Amino acid sequence: MIRSMTAFTRQQQHTEWGQLTLEIRSVNHRYLEIGFRLPPALLPLEGALRDRLRKGLSRGKVDVTITLGIEGSTQGFPLDHDRLRQLNAALTAIQDEVDGVRAPDALAILNYPGIIRDVQPSEDHIAAAALTLFDKGLVDLISAREREGKRIDTMLTTRLDAIDDQVAHVRTLMPTIIERQQTLLKERIEAARAEIDEQRLAGEIALLVQKADVEEELDRLTSHVVEVRDQLKQSKPVGRRLDFLMQELNREANTLSSKSVVAETTKCAVELKVLIEQMREQVQNVE
């Protein structure tokens, strides 16, 4: 099953401390090119994120953007009541043991470490949430590339069927093509007989026969179509291989056109070029 290189995903994760937003965009590219836009807190994760992408994708220009929003507390001064009770018990014990010790005021208690809870998340918590969100987004991106790949597969298969039809049609024209070739050959022989010697004439005849024979081009077109169909069934990336096969198909279509001696063959060759070009455009997006 082929995969497209063009896809997009957007994921969000809400936590008690804020929100993470992930966007991954990928478009066609000859190789795998990755770019990141990360908040300062997540910059240390770039290497790990890059490794994850390389394991999931093999080609494409991929842009990853993660934004981080830390929400402030709506509770004013969130108190750690357990810590406050422990401090109160300790102060009471000190006053019982030491005469004349003055109890601290409320402001001093608020400044005591741990009394006001720290609502800011740790970097480890942010990193863990970001990795989880990224893995989810990468799975969704690959699924989108696979869905688009199915649409490309359908389009390519339809064009391959059409190419088979054109090749079959040219084969049915072979009697007409051969008859036309023989007529042209006779005309050229008569015209050349008076101008060149018999040995050279024999060479010219052999050259004309070889040039007019399109069976080899038809066989190669059929062979390339079979190979494209086989590549579409592969689980590994096949984009570069498909691109090469498009070039080979186009080469045979051009040769068929140059050898054409009847209008119908020329028409078929033009149709083949149109079909191959439509396929080539789609293949540029295949991973």
TrEMBL record:
Residues 2-152 form the Endoribonuclease YicC-like N-terminal domain. Residues 182-231 form a coiled coil. Transmembrane segments: none annotated. The keyword Nuclease applies. InterPro entries: YicC-like_C, YicC-like_N, YicC/YloC-like. Residues 171-287 form the Endoribonuclease YicC-like C-terminal domain. GO terms for molecular function: hydrolase activity; RNA endonuclease activity. Its cofactor is a divalent metal cation. The keyword Hydrolase applies. Keywords: Coiled coil, Endonuclease, Hydrolase, Nuclease. PANTHER family: UPF0701 PROTEIN YICC. Belongs to the YicC/YloC family. This is Uncharacterized stress-induced protein. It comes from Zymobacter palmae. The lineage of its organism: Bacteria, Pseudomonadati, Pseudomonadota, Gammaproteobacteria, Oceanospirillales.
